């Protein structure tokens, strides 16, 4: 076969080697020669020395593996020459399986203790407790299955490692056992499903109450805009076509509910009050994620979504509990949205009712002077529209 | 029966002309080959190449995650404008993530896995001369090759490859101005995927028709090895779900290039009001996941089939609950069409709908659990022979348990609120479909290497490869669960902007080094693979003492697989260690009449004539014993 001959031929091999050597030389020459600056070229050559160092390390590791392999082979052959059986790899691997199982169990234990302590920050919302309870129930059930099955798996591998003296046990099926291990998982999963379904419904199937706080959170690349409803508790309508650099949300000022809307830089929430966050996106899909409150909902352009929840722990409280005076609740983007996705966050502060009232009183109205001027300017240039606007304003 | 008719024709038509009239040129033998064994090798080698590329990409972004503040001049030398001053560009980071995911899911674990083993094993294990349509089979490979080239070519365009994540949700992917990765790179991604899906459909139709029409005499469906069952159901799944992705992709192309608004509405991009109105980004997600979820089963089912076969052969035991294994595959296939919504619990889809998808999702865990228990029962009281293939098959079982269990968390809508798009998800799917499926694929490579190349791979290097990869994969993905539970989001270029995540930095560094070690371990595989193709030990005809039909074909590849008549099949493929038989395996081609001492009444379930003969034989045996 021509193909094989070609591969086998030493000439072709040495040609390839020579070619690669030459190629590296050219590359190196480019690396040093192309840059006029001496400093640059030294840093480049430093870099290649660093790279070469690691490549040599890898080659060394390969050589060591090859040497160990040869030693094993020689040992194996010498055993066979003495008339003994060669190395019994079934036993060796069987033992490695047991070592892996024990090391793995210890690793799991270590992970659960050390890293397990770093997970699930204390839930700071009412429904968060339910979700956490669901989580821990699922964890207990599944970890039980996890440990049992992995122990059986690697235990069987050790116990039933191959030997010439034995034959496998011909056991093609047992309908009773199969029924049992179909029905038991089915029952357990049914319990989890029912439990989960009701938890999910209780979190998402919410009624709108009169004294809910309605807050608009709008996402765009790569920031969040926050709008409070003002005294009337109602948010004015928005229309993306009304966007101007001053009115970034495109609030429709023909809707009188919008007059007292307020703009804010921080999402401040009163503790123990139901909050409904209305989530909008202007350009691509974002996701509003607040892990402390167990809240996540995507922000989809053209499809307003919402999430209702009740914060239960104030920021100050949480700081004391965590003993970290710099702690802040955060809201961040959790759906890939472009180059700045990794830094699209907003501070969320949960405060007492009184603090909230004080804070909200100090927030600026969304209808800023610039927007007023803009609307007025539009009036001047387009008299017809101005009339309409006035009618709207007088309504 | 159509099966018989086609089969008879095949035998009559092909009987004599195999050995004679093939004067292959280099082109027809190695390039535009229509022989299923060569096409399988082409798929495998392309798949491995793509896997290595995707793995290198993952190491690049792992370096960024481990050392977010460090500059690596080498990166600038290698990547140029994509890594100014030796640090990855944030948008290029997203491109790396995207292309890594796309290549691994589609090019390696769909085409590389199904393409290789369906092509190799379906004709050899059902007893066919070749695929139903060899020409379409060849086209399937070349469409796949073209798709690969187009996908990789996007690294050489000005703005770099697609960067919207492998799920390419619009509007991000639909608005070229939204990010660099949504410009020409995304167009190439979409074109590549259309070619890929064409390839996948041609392959799938071929697999289905070969399994249904071209089985040899005696090979009824319940005598097929689990590999063939898995490939068959996978192909059905692919044929039914991939076209939906084409629809989604074509509409996306329209939105990008022709100004339609299928997925776009109410958009202000960088201060500019866009004219799109009335579309829905959620529509794309439905179309995408209608393929996307079956896709993960397209990835895992062939790996399950391969593992079932490899575990049975090397435990020297029949697979436990063969029927249950098939029914659970069928169950997974059916259910996988109605669970896609669990990817969309928090997208703003109606929450009630979310609840329904949650129920269907958790039901699919039942057949998966059955499969796991059956594998364990197969190992129980076996005579386990640790070939590298066996180890990788066991690795699949271990990963499938670890990753499958976290699926119960994510499939639960209430828990998904807090876990969606965090590292918990990354850990989950890398274990259950990434690592598990790649281990299934590697098990297949080690097991059928002698069938493909006529030589054996080195076992010791295989052991080294397995243990390093297996341990490192756990070291990489296990800690990620905890990061996710702490609210660390995936697809973040750096965690440095969040002081709260600083405590995970050391874990990130650890994961990166584990990933690099796992990457280096693949050198053992690549060296072993390439070296063994040319210089490996020559194999015998049936190196693993397996029962299935492919080991009755000669080692030397011939066109048409078997010289002379195709062997007839008399029994199921799992008669290992049958009591009363001298050897611990009985080939599928051995008639029951030759193994009277080991037959069981069960062997004659649909064969009353055979059963009465068996009973008579039993009687005479008993009476002769009494005489003694």
Provide structural commentary.
Helix content of chain A is 53%, strand content 14%. Chain A is an alpha+beta fold and 395 residues long. In chain A, helix 4 (89-114) runs antiparallel to helix 5 and helix 5 runs antiparallel to helix 6 (175-204). The longest helix of chain A has 44 residues, at 38-81. Chain B has one domain (2-538): Cytochrome C Oxidase, Chain A (Up-down Bundle), CATH 1.20.210. A two-stranded antiparallel sheet of chain B has the order 1-2. A two-stranded antiparallel sheet of chain B has the order 3-4. Chain B starts with a helix and ends with a helix. The interface between A and B is large, with 121 and 127 residues.
What is the count of β-strands of chain A?
Answer: 10
CATH class of the largest domain in chain A: Mainly Beta
* SSE string of chain B, helices as H and strands as E: HHHHHHHHEEHHHHHHHEHHEH
Series of H and E elements of chain A: HHHHHHEEEEEEEEHEEHHH
State the distance separating the first and last CA atoms of chain B: 48 Å
What's the arrangement of strands in the largest beta sheet of chain B? 1-2
- Within CATH, the superfamily of chain B carries the name Cytochrome c oxidase-like, subunit I domain
Tell me the number of strands of chain B. 4
- Supply the number of structural domains of chain A: 3
CATH class of chain B: Mainly Alpha
Query: Which topology of chain B does CATH recognise?
Result: Cytochrome C Oxidase, Chain A
Give the averaged pLDDT of chain A, no decimals.
Answer: 85
Give the overall shape of chain A, derived from the CA principal axes: elongated
What strand order characterises the main sheet of chain A? 3-2-1-5-8
Q: What amount of the residues of chain A lies in strands?
A: 5-15%
Count of discrete structural domains of chain B: 1
Largest interface: A-B, 121 and 127 residues
Q: Name the beta content range of chain B.
A: under 5%
Topology:
The complex is a heterodimer of chains A (395) and B (628).
Chain A lengths: L1 H7 L1 H24 L4 H44 L7 H26 L11 H34 L15 H30 L8 E8 L2 E6 L33 E3 L2 E4 L4 E7 L4 E5 L4 E5 L5 E5 L5 H8 L6 E5 L11 E7 L1 H10 L6 H13 L1 H12 L1
Parallel strand pairs in A: 1-5, 4-10
Antiparallel strand pairs in A: 1-2, 2-3, 5-8, 6-7, 6-9, 9-10
Chain B lengths: L1 H13 L11 H6 L4 H31 L6 H7 L10 H37 L7 H20 L30 H30 L12 H32 L10 E2 L2 E2 L7 H35 L6 H14 L15 H13 L1 H15 L8 H23 L2 H7 L3 H31 L1 E2 L2 H27 L19 H31 L1 E2 L69 H20 L1
Antiparallel strand pairs in B: 1-2, 3-4
């Amino acid at each position: 076969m021509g193909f094989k001959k070609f591969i086998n031929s030493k000439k072709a091999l040495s040609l390839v080697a020579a070619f690669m050597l030459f190629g590296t030389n050219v590359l190196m020459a480019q690396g040093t020669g192309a840059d006029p600056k001496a400093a640059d070229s030294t840093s480049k050559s430093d870099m290649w020395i660093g790279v070469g160092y690691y490549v040599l390390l890898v080659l060394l590791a390969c050589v060591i593996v090859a040497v160990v392999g040869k030693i094993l082979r020689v040992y194996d052959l010498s055993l066979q020459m003495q008339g003994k059986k060669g190395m019994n790899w079934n036993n060796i691997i069987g033992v490695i399986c047991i070592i892996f199982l024990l090391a793995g169990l210890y690793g799991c234990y270590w992970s659960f203790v050390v890293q397990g302590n770093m997970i699930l920050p204390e839930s700071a919302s009412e429904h968060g407790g339910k979700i956490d309870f669901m989580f821990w129930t699922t964890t207990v059930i599944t970890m039980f299955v996890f440990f049992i099955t992995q122990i059986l798996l690697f235990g069987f591998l050790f116990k039933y490692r191959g030997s010439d003296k034995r034959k496998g046990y011909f056991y093609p099926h047992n309908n009773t056992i199969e029924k049992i291990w179909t029905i038991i998982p089915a029952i357990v999963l049914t319990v989890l499903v029912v439990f989960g379904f009701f938890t999910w419904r209780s979190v998402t199937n919410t009624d709108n109450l009169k004294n809910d706080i309605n807050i608009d959170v709008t996402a765009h690349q790569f920031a969040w805009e926050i709008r409070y409803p003002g005294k009337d508790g109602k948010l004015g309508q928005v229309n993306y076509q009304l966007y101007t650099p001053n009115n970034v949300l495109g609030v429709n000022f023909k809707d009188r509910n919008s007059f007292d809307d307020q703009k804010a830089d921080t999402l401040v929430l009163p503790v123990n009050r139901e909050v409904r966050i209305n989530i909008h996106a202007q350009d691509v899909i974002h996701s509003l994620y607040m892990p402390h409150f167990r809240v996540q909902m995507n922000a989809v352009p053209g499809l307003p979504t919402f999430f209702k929840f009740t914060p239960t722990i104030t920021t100050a409280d949480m700081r004391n509990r965590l003993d970290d005076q710099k702690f802040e609740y955060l809201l961040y983007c959790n759906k890939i949205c472009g180059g700045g996705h990794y830094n699209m966050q907003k501070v969320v502060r949960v405060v007492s009712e009184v603090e909230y009232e004080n804070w909200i009183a100090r927030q600026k109205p969304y209808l800023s002077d610039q927007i007023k001027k803009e609307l007025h300017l539009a009036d001047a240039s387009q008299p017809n529209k101005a009339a309409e606007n006035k009618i709207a304003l007088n309504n | 029966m159509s099966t018989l008719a086609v089969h008879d024709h095949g035998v009559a038509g092909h009987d004599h002309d195999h050995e004679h009239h093939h004067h292959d040129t280099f082109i027809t033998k190695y390039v535009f080959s229509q022989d299923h064994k060569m096409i399988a090798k082409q798929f495998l080698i392309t798949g491995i190449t793509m896997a290595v590329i995707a793995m290198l990409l993952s190491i690049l972004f792992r370096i960024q995650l481990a050392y977010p503040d460090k500059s690596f001049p080498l990166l600038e030398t290698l990547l140029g404008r994509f890594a100014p001053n030796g640090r990855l560009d944030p948008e290029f980071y997203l491109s790396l993530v995207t292309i890594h995911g796309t290549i691994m899911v589609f090019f390696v674990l769909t085409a590389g896995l199904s393409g290789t083993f369906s092509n190799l094993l379906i004709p050899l294990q059902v007893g066919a001369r070749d695929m139903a349509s060899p020409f379409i089979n060849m086209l399937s490979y070349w469409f796949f090759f073209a798709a690969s080239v187009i996908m990789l070519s996007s690294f050489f365009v000005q703005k770099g490859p697609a960067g919207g994540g492998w799920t390419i949700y619009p509007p991000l992917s639909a608005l070229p101005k939204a990010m660099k990765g949504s410009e020409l790179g995304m167009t190439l991604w979409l074109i590549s995927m259309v070619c890929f899906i064409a390839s996948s459909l041609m392959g799938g139709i071929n697999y289905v028709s070969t399994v249904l029409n071209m089985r040899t005499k005696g090979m009824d469906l319940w005598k097929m090895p689990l590999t063939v069952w898995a490939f068959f159901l996978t192909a059905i799944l692919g044929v039914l779900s991939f076209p939906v992705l084409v629809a989604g992709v074509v509409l996306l192309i329209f939105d990008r290039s022709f100004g339609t608004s299928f997925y776009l509405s109410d958009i202000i991009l960088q201060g500019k009001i866009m004219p799109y109105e009335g579309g829905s980004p959620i529509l794309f997600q439905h179309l995408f996941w209608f393929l996307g979820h079956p896709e993960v089963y397209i990835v895992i089912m062939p790996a399950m089939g391969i593992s079932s076969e490899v575990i049975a052969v090397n435990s020297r035991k029949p697979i436990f609950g063969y029927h249950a294994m098939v029914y659970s595959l069928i169950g997974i296939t059916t259910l996988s069409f109605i669970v896609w919504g669990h990817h969309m619990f928090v997208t703003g889809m109606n929450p009630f709908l979310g609840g329904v998808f949650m129920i269907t999702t958790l039901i699919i865990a039942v057949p998966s659990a059955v499969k796991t228990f059956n594998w364990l029962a197969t190992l129980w009281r076996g005579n386990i022979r640790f070939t590298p293939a066996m180890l990788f098959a066991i690795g699949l079982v271990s990963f499938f348990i670890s990753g499958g269990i976290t699926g119960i968390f994510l499939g639960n809508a209430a828990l998904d609120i807090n876990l969606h798009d965090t590292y918990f998800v990354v850990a989950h799917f890398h274990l259950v479909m990434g690592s598990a499926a790649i281990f299934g694929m590697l098990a297949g490579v080690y097991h059928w290497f002698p069938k493909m190349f006529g030589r054996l791979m080195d076992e010791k290097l295989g052991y080294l490869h397995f243990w390093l990869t297996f341990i490192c994969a756990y070291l990489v993905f296990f800690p990620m669960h905890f990061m996710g539970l702490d609210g660390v989001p995936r697809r973040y270029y750096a965690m440095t902007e969040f002081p709260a995540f600083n405590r995970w930095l050391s874990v990130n560094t650890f994961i990166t080094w584990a990933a690099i070690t796992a990457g280096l371990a693949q050198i053992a595989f690549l060296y072993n693979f390439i070296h063994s193709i040319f210089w490996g030990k020559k194999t015998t005809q049936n190196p693993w003492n397996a029962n299935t039909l492919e080991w009755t074909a000669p080692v030397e590849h011939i066109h048409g697989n078997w010289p002379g008549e195709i062997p007839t099949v008399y029994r199921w493929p799992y008669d290992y260690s049958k009591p009363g038989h001298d050897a611990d395996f009985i080939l599928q081609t051995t008639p029951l009449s030759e193994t009277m001492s080991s037959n069981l009444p069960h062997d004659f379930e649909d064969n009353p004539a055979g059963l009465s003969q068996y009973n008579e034989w039993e009687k005479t045996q008993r009476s002769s014993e009494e005489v003694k």
